[in-house]
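User: What would this chain look like folded?
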Amino acid sequence: MKILVLGSGAREHAIVTSLLSEEAAHDIVVAPGNAGIAQDVRVEPDLDPLDGIAVTEYAIENGIELVVIGPEAPLVAGVADPLRTRGIPVFGPGKVAAQLEGSKTFAKRVMDAAGVPTGRAVRASTLLEVEEALDALGAPYVVKADGLAAGKGVLVTEDRDDAVDHASHYLEQGSVLVEEFLDGQEVSLFLVSDGHTVLPLAPAQDFKRLLDGDAGPNTGGMGAYSPLPWLPENFVDEVIDTVAIPTVRQLAREQTPFIGLLYCGLILTSRGIRVIEFNARFGDPETQVVLPRMVTPLSELLFAAATGSLSAQQRPEFAWDVTVTVVLASEGYPEAPITGRPITGLDEAAAVPEVTIAHAATARDAQTGELVATGGRVLSVVARGTTFAEARSRAYEAIGRIGLEGSQYRTDIAAGVTV
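Assistant: Here's the prediction, encoded as structure tokens.
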């Protein structure tokens, strides 16, 4: 199959790695890609993934049979819509359905209409409304940017002044949501949807804070692991019945079917499962630990969703082994990452058994040819093992072999988890 993947991060590299592992010999191209992806497949660095018309024309001219949209920005921009209009199978929701991620207010409205369990929330457009909502809901305070914020728009704090300052910053870009604090273990669950049928992938847990012990600022994610042996046995089925199907059916009733990956950010509270947020695409870094465990060919699942034939597919199967990923970030991330520094030791890291490296923000220096960091989260080191101890040991052995001046990573990803 000729497949076009849009994106340039570790999530897209993980998707490409999964597609390449299949017996079928796919012809894969990635736009714009990164230095690591370019080592594996052809990239189109000049094709703008935010330009729906250009992407559609490229797909037609090159006989693309499936387009997979990785990041949130092209989805919220509506890149899937012109592709579908021209009859090109595309994995990713249209512009309106993508507002499940693009607008926290939209997502809360859909959840309310569908009867999906979630925390109380107040939309605020002024600082006075923010302060009234903070006082009404109480501490710990939860403030979220309404729109996209690259995983950094959420603040949870006991400090009311910090909550007000955070809200003030994002009010310059639009409204914010002040939400009820929900306490419990967080879970990420991906569900593939063709607008009617949903099929679950394996649950994962990510680590959003920058520092060990869940300290420091929120990030796009510093690591993840799968499976989650501590989950209740019926957890996935309960999420399908109470969250995924009601949400997909509600969007279908609103004539904006959700076709793609419904990312459910969940929390197990003392009162049951609650939705923290929805995303409209594969999560990063959870994708890096979910896809390596999947036995079912990824291409079959994505194509079935894109063509409305998911009901003919069996629930995806997953291996029993463990995957752990640790993110290597640049100095200064997330506030002001220092870029342009050379990266060394990747061959040595990849030589560790059952380790792969997913590139997130890398490029080749035009003059020296050196691999350099181009952003905050630079690499995801992914390791498999028969136990958590084995997978963790491999991941940290590998990341210890990588050189990047000033780099940082958490040392407690999946610590204490046992099968």
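The two ends are 37 Å apart (CA to CA). If you want, I can go into more detail on any region.
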